Structure formats: structure tokens, C-alpha cells
Amino acid sequence: MNIILLSGGSGKRLWPLSNDIRSKQFIKIFKTADGYESMVQRVYRQIKEVDPAATVTIATSKTQVSSIHNQLGDSVGVCVEPCRRDTFPAIALASAYLHDVKGVAPQEPVVVCPVDPYVNNDYFEALHTLSQLAQQGAANLTLMGIEPTYPSEKYGYIIPETSDAVSKVKTFKEKPDAKTAAEYIAQGALWNGGVFAYRLGYVLDRAHELIEFDGYQDLYDKYATLRKISFDYAVVEKEPNIQVMRFAGQWKDMGTWNTLTEAMEEPGIGKAILNDSCRNVHVLNELDVPVLCMGLQDVVVSASPEGILVSDKEQSSYIKPFVDAIDQQIMFAEKSWGSFRVLDIEDESLTIKVTLNPGHSMNYHSHQRRDEVWTVISGRGRAVVDGVERPVQAGDIVRMPAGCRHTILADSELKLIEVQLGREISVQDKEKFPLEIVSHGKEKA
Amino acid sequence: MNIILLSGGSGKRLWPLSNDIRSKQFIKIFKTADGYESMVQRVYRQIKEVDPAATVTIATSKTQVSSIHNQLGDSVGVCVEPCRRDTFPAIALASAYLHDVKGVAPQEPVVVCPVDPYVNNDYFEALHTLSQLAQQGAANLTLMGIEPTYPSEKYGYIIPETSDAVSKVKTFKEKPDAKTAAEYIAQGALWNGGVFAYRLGYVLDRAHELIEFDGYQDLYDKYATLRKISFDYAVVEKEPNIQVMRFAGQWKDMGTWNTLTEAMEEPGIGKAILNDSCRNVHVLNELDVPVLCMGLQDVVVSASPEGILVSDKEQSSYIKPFVDAIDQQIMFAEKSWGSFRVLDIEDESLTIKVTLNPGHSMNYHSHQRRDEVWTVISGRGRAVVDGVERPVQAGDIVRMPAGCRHTILADSELKLIEVQLGREISVQDKEKFPLEIVSHGKEKA
């Protein structure tokens, strides 16, 4: 099975665990035997359990690449959108990537699926069936229709011609009000979960009709010039030959704190204490200090280095404008090489904790307007400053005056405290260079 | 006016802003023209406004001395109890301190008052009257009786002989149930707010009757051997000649989050965002990141480096057992020389931010089982390592291997990041020495 997972944009609705650079699909919230996994880890694991040979490609933006590799490892396929251009350009680019980079033949089937459904393995078995239906070619597009459990206003509806397991699609309906949704359901309508399958060549043909391009690299290069247009508008609405396959298993959308906490197996993740009079309270605490809840009802509490949310669960769906108004430095980020967390902010200094994964290094870079000091607190590695490489371990200090080029390479997991000093500390003040080692220091750094 | 302020013990009921080493009276919660002041700062300011010549002595434990000097300056009188021995030994020690250290004559009046009443200046004017009544000597003890506003179960009651402004006391009653309290109030009873005045010699005589000691220093030295006994039991219950003065002004006890938030002039202190559907919600946030509250009612949210409380206001009075069960390192402390805050805890390292007040220094000390590194992030001062003093400023690094003696003296406000490294990091691993400077380093540290 070739599967393209669409990994969407920034998820402020789950602030403070999601923000501009950390999307909800990366929050580690689902209990496993030995800890917690994120939505993207859960979905990837489920796909591999159902089809160990599946080729998974994640279509996403540059900002998510670090988190994806950090959580899924380096072997997962990632098709990076240079900028956001809605779903049709994204699916066209991912399809061109499968064809030109991964060598998938035009007659092979491809399944497209959002990265964040909260489902069981039967869902991925259904995707496998969807892929087979696409390969058989009875229709140009094969959609998954989810059997509704209530007249939701949050989803589009697919109305099939028959109530068979697989049926031609009669028509599509936009998100309705609850009363209209109930009427649709009475007619046998299904939720449109944004899942569909096709033969690769079909979407490549549509892409070439709408965009003049010569293969994946050319499409990538001109991506910023493409018109924003949805796959529904560009392809689905113009295609008369569409079929839909019913799916009646569990399917939940984890878009708000309310729906997300419903999927939690226990009331607290992280250090959380709830007294006996708490009812329907969930705590997600990423901080090192405890959250104590007393006498609350229907409340979600979430604490991260970015901030603290305390909200009635229903009200939490109105969070976005409040979070948009918060103007604050990013306090935590996962990177391809590890992560960093801001520990302290002063007018002329910034102190962060940096964790490097074994075998990884940050970019070789310099800053014009700040000095930096590293104090290694655990692990072993090699620091490079202006071309001189020196071994470092816990207790070693590395001074980096403004202008010097520097990086650190982790031989084991390596943690350090970085103190940045200067009057104009900014993430923009960074120039990257190819790593060049001119000598090896014998002494400790 | 000679006034002894009793500054009580650790206040876990206001966790996470109070804890074992930080009592509620030091929380900066009351709005002033240019910021916030704590209960102890508010009371001290009010006393000085009413009687600029007042001699204020704070009777407290060792653990609070740093916070008192940090918040009130070095000129306030502090009588330190070497250990906790209940109110009679504490008041006896403070009385001996006034006589032997401050030179207060036996016939002079003294007023004893808790450090944490939330009152207006009329309360301190009443204390002044109480002091004058004690000096006139119509009774051996002159108490303040607070006119009850409701039949509270939280206070003891004083039943006066008459309803005059000043009356002989008929009897005292322990904390009653609400029904009994209402009966007391019908008889003209007053709340016992723990405020009383006497001629200094009177309490010194009682102290010498019950304890064999020869002046303040001797009493201090044998303090640990004294029996725990309350002033009420040792003195008040045995004294037939007691009068009470009525006080009808505002008087609030700030012992719980519920009463404390009633005294807040605005819903939030620190970074707090409340949406329109919040009702009777108060946020006290000491962290650098925002707290967002949505759709809550009758809730207090408090966040500090120690943890986060989210509680129904009524329920918050049951907090103590939950906080007792939290076993956690102290994350923030005020010291006489400034403050520190824990930024990061790892298995074999601890990173803290240290702020030194101008002109202050930490003790000259060493650690056996950990190395330390300072990175100065702002200010100017002098670091002393093994007797060698060197000037330091932002960007300078000081390395302190295990065993070396070290301190830093702040010439301006000075902030630094301290990284502690070792397998057994413990607050117990500290040996203090008198400062000895053997040479002055010319280079930067």
C-alpha cells in the first residue's frame, strides 16, 4: 500500500501543547506500554502493524520535518511543501514525489489520508481495501465514507447511490446544520473524512492539466507560484466517476481539547493530582512541577513551557482568538537533531537547554550580535569552534564570541545549557555554513 | 509604640505560592502604585504611616529572616526563635529582646499582633490606643476584640462585661460551632484576633516565674529546652485582670485562597487572560508564561515555580494534605542576599538562576560532591575562588571544582546562571567559611 499522510498546519486550538511550530499531531498523549505516543506515531505504528510493507509518505510543510524525523526516525518518506498552497497542489506534489523519487508506477494505487484520525487498526485495514478498489479501477476516485454516529455540523457528507458496502457517489454536501445533517443521514449519507484512493496516474494527469510542470523537482521549484486550490474543488467536484466505501469502525477527530480528552485513558498525563470532588477533569502537564486540581467539573488543564490553559471543556473550542493574541517567544521546539527549551529570558540574555540525539548535530552556524556559552551537563560529543574540533563531556565549557562559527556533534545523547548574551538576541541572527574542521584540539574544550 | 509582630510558620494552605520555606505573608499580592507588596510589607508600611516612630520587632523563625530583610530592609528589628516553641516562649523571648537588646523599660507598653491581618490604617490607630491603655495600667493585659460580622467557627470569642468601648473581660470561649457562635454574639461577644498589649515588665515577670533564665541571651541559648506552651494557656487563662477594647473596622484573615482572593483588586496578578464567561475567577501567576482561563466559575488558579493549583474556591481550604504529599525540591527561595530559582533538574546536574542584590554576597562556601560553573548574565561584581578575587561582568565564566571555596559579591544587581554537576547534588553538601581574600586577579575571571 502506498499511503500519503497529509500532516496539516499549526494547531493553536490545542494551545499550550500546540503552537505555531508544534502541531497537535506531535503531542505525546496516547498511553503505550512504555510511555506515550503522539498521533503521528500512533498512526504510523498502526499502518505498519496492518501492512508492514506499506510505503508511507508524509506531505507536510518545512516546519514539521524536524518533528517528523524526531518522532518517526529518518526512514519515513517526507514530501516537503515549500509553502502552503492548499490540498490540490500538496497532493499533486506528493504524487509527483511518489512517481519521480519513489518510482511508483502510474497504474499503482495511492491512498491519501489525514495524519490525525483517532482510530483502531480496522481503519487501516479499510484503507488497504480502499487501495485494492482503486487498483481495480471501477472508478477514478474511491472515497471512504464514515457511518455517522450523530448529525454532526463539523463534517461534509457523501450521499451514495445505494447502501451497498461500495457504491457510486450520488452527490456531496457541504457542512450542514444539525437538522439538515439529520435529513442527510436519513437518506443514507456518510461523513466525508477526507480519505480517498486513486491510481497514481489519474492525479498526475489532473495535475498536468491544471499546472504546467516537468516532474517533481520542477513542480517543487515553482510551488510558490501555484494557485491555492482545494483537491475537492480542483478534482472531486469535476469527476463524475467516484465511488465510496462504507466504514463503520471507530473514527474520532482530535481537533479540540474536548474531543482529545475523550480519548485519554486516564485523567492525568504528567504530574497531576485530582481530589475526589473533581468530575470529568483532564490534566495534560508537560512541566516538571505538579498540577493540583480540587473541586472542578468538566475542565481541562494543560501546562507546557508555552503557558497554562484552564478551560471548561465546551468553551475550549473558542480558544483560537485568545491564543492568536498571545505574543510570546517560542519556549520549546523539537528539531531534527533533538530539542531545545527556553529556561530564562532577561533583557540581554537568554538561557536554553539543548538536547542532542546520539549521532546528531546542529547546523554549523554563527551569530553576529550575541556571544554564547555552553556548559555540557551530560553525555559526550565534539564541539567545533572556528574549525577546531575538541571532545566535550559533562562539565566542559565552550565559549563562542559573536561571529565565530560553531556546532556540536553528539556521540551519545548530549545535553547542555546555552547562555546567549547580547542586546539584540533574535532567531533571525543566524548564518549557516558547511561544516569544515581544520584541526583537532588535544585539550578539553 | 513598641510592636511585636508574630510572623508565623510555613503556610502550605496557599501552595504553590507558599511552602515550607516561603510563608504566605511574603507573597506579593496587594496592588500598590508601582507594583505589588506582600502582607508583611503592607503591615509594616501601615504601622509606619500611623506611627513613624514605632519600634517594630518581628518575632520569627530562622527560615524567615532572609525574606524579612529582603522585603523590609536591614533596619527592621528581628527576634529570631532558634526553634518553634509555641507562643509563650516566643513572646517571652521577644519581650526579653526588647528589654535587653533594644533597651525598652519595664514600664513601657508593648503591643503584640500577628503579621498577617488584612486591615486598614484605623486598625493600627486602634493598636496605638491599645498601647496607651496598657501604659495607663488599668489592667495587666489589654486585648483587642473585633466586632463579629457573622457567627464564624474559625475564631475564639471574648465575652466582655459591658458593651463599653473598653470593658473588663468576663470570659473567653474556644472556637464554637456556628449556632453557639450566634449565641455568643447575642451576648455581645467579640472575636479574639490575637492582639494584646501589656507593660513590658508584666510579661517579663511571668516569664521569670515559668522559666529560669538570666536575660535575653540566656533565654535564647536554652530556647530548645523550653516546654511548648501557648501564651493563652500560660498567661491569659491565669490572669484575672484583663480588659478588652472593641474594634469595628475592617479585619480579614488571609489564611485561605478563598479569603485571600477576596482582597484582590483585580482578577489577575501576573500574565493572566480570562474570557468573558469566567465568573469569580482569580489568577495569581508568578511564571513568565500566560495563564488562559475560559468558562470557569468560582475558581482560583495559582502558578509558581513550585507548581500549579486549580481549585474551586471553597474546596481550596482542604488543600493541606495534598500539598503535604508532594515531595519536591524547593524551586524558588528568597535569601537575605537576593533569590534563586531552579531552572532545570537532571540526574547529575541542577541549573539555577541566582539574583544578588547590590552590595550583597552569598556565604563563602564549598561543596564536596559537586563542581559548579557560573555564567554571569547581567551586572557587575567580584568572584572569589580559593581566596583569589577577580572582577566579573555579563559573559564572564567562573569554574568551581568540588572542594574549592567560593562566593560572589555584587557591586550592582548581579544575575548569573549556576550549573551544578555531580552524582550526589544535595543542599546538605555545603560548608561555610569566613571570607578570606589572599590576592586580586588582574585578568577577568
Task: Give a verbal description of the structure.
- The structure is a homodimer of 445-residue chains.
- The first copy, chain A, has 445 residues and is of the alpha/beta class.
- Helices cover 21% and strands 38% of the residues of chain A.
- The first copy, chain A, contains 10 helices and 31 strands.
- The termini of chain A are far apart.
- In chain A, 44% of the residues are buried.
- At the A-B interface, β17, β18, β19, β21 and β22 of A face β17, β18, β19, β21 and β22 of B.
- β19 of chain A pairs parallel with β17 of chain B.
- Chains A, B: One of its GO terms (molecular function) is mannose-1-phosphate guanylyltransferase (GTP) activity.
- Chains A, B: It comes from Candidatus Gemmiger excrementipullorum.
Q: What is the helix fraction of residues of chain A, given as a range? A: 10-25%
Low-confidence spans of chain A: pLDDT under 50, at least 5 residues? none
- Characterize the quaternary organization of these chains: homodimer
Beta fraction of chain A: 35-45%
Mean pLDDT of chain A comes to: 92
C-alpha Rg of chain A (nearest Å): 24 Å
The pair of chains with the biggest contact is: A-B, 61 and 61 residues
Main sheet specs of chain A:
6 strands, antiparallel
Domain Nucleotidyl transferase (chains A, B): 4-265
GO molecular function (chains A, B): mannose-1-phosphate guanylyltransferase (GTP) activity
InterPro entries (chains A, B): Cupin_2, Mannose-6P_isomerase_type2, NTP_transferase_dom, Nucleotide-diphossugar_trans, RmlC-like_jellyroll, RmlC_Cupin_sf
Protein name (chains A, B): Cupin domain-containing protein
